[in-house]
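Good morning,

Attaching, inline, the backbone tokens for the sequence recovery test we're adding to the shared suite. The designed sequence is right after.
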């Protein structure tokens, strides 16, 4: 397949122009464009520019607000809520971030619920600003019912990603961001676009039989990673980022979509912890013990989650990003 390389500035400007052309307000278009450009920059194409057509499609189908402003609710000393009012989650997260950091500093631990939002973005982008403030953080969100539970064959859970971040002085933070499915749905769709098979164990066809055909999986059901273990984690996400915060499960989100093919609607839960409040004067000593753990991992040849993304980031800042020309043409056409 033919590819095209774009500078980061060009990629952002293209995304911004197309999003605004299709009706998103400047604030929302800027937040979305920055998020997808950053994902592309960091070597995460399943959440990069590939997401622009889906964002536009969701808007044109009336399943996301192009201009709703978030409203912050201070519910308790350690709990903050922000209502996205049917818009994408990104602007709501940005609006709530300063107050959320303050609550975490005051209480040592705090939770943020983003409600009534459409969510498509990688969760590491929500975690990284917290680790930059020296905080430990965890985030999760349901999606549409695309994944069968372990032992089942019908979609019930979302891909239900979980992200965790740990700050490291003078080094990239330890951040993992993983779907509870065997692969992200965007990764499966990228295989479909490229005409490639996927590995065994990623999903089932509409008849509930194992398949390596990405189109059949997208029409059938994805599978959890690690069998019952991934399935249990997906169920946990459904509960704590669904009913616990008064928002939709993945099955309810898909029912709300009603065949429009829009992006998932529901909520996101983010929990942050301040090591300084947990540890007081002993913080430096115990954070140093964490560095010993990371060193022991590396000495065995293990990769530290988050390090590769930062290496790719540095390369992209020099060389730009490369995407399939077919995707580039699709995005250009959306702005025509």
């Amino acid at each position: 397949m033919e590819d095209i390389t774009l500078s980061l500035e060009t990629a952002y400007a293209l995304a911004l122009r197309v999003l605004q052309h299709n009706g998103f307000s400047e604030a929302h278009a800027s937040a979305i464009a920055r998020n997808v450009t950053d994902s592309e920059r960091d070597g995460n194409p399943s959440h990069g520019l590939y997401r622009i057509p889906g964002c536009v499609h969701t808007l044109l189908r009336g399943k996301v607000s192009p201009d709703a402003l978030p409203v912050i609710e201070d519910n308790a000393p350690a709990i903050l809520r922000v209502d996205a009012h049917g818009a994408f989650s990104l602007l709501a997260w940005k609006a709530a971030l300063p107050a959320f950091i303050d609550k975490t500093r005051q209480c040592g631990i705090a939770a943020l619920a983003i409600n009534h939002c459409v969510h498509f973005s990688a969760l590491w982008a929500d975690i990284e600003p917290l680790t930059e403030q020296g905080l430990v953080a965890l985030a999760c969100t349901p999606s549409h019912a695309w994944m069968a539970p372990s032992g089942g064959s019908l979609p019930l859970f979302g891909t239900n990603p979980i992200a965790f971040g740990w700050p490291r002085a003078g080094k990239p933070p330890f951040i993992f961001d993983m779907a509870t499915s065997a692969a992200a749905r965007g990764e499966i769709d990228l295989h479909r676009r490229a005409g490639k098979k996927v590995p065994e164990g990623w999903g089932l066809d509409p008849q509930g039989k194992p398949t390596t055909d990405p189109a059949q999986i997208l029409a059938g059901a994805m599978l959890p990673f690690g069998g019952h273990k991934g399935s249990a984690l997906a169920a946990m996400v459904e509960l704590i980022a669904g009913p616990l915060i008064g928002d939709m499960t993945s099955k309810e989100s898909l029912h709300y979509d009603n065949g429009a093919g829009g992006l998932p609607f529901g909520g996101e839960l983010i929990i942050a912890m301040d090591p300084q409040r947990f540890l007081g004067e002993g913080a430096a000593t115990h954070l140093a013990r964490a560095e010993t753990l990371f060193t022991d991992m590396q000495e065995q040849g293990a990769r530290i989650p988050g390090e590769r993304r930062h290496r790719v980031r540095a390369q992209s800042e020099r060389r730009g990003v490369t995407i399939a020309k077919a995707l580039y043409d699709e995005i250009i056409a959306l702005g025509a």
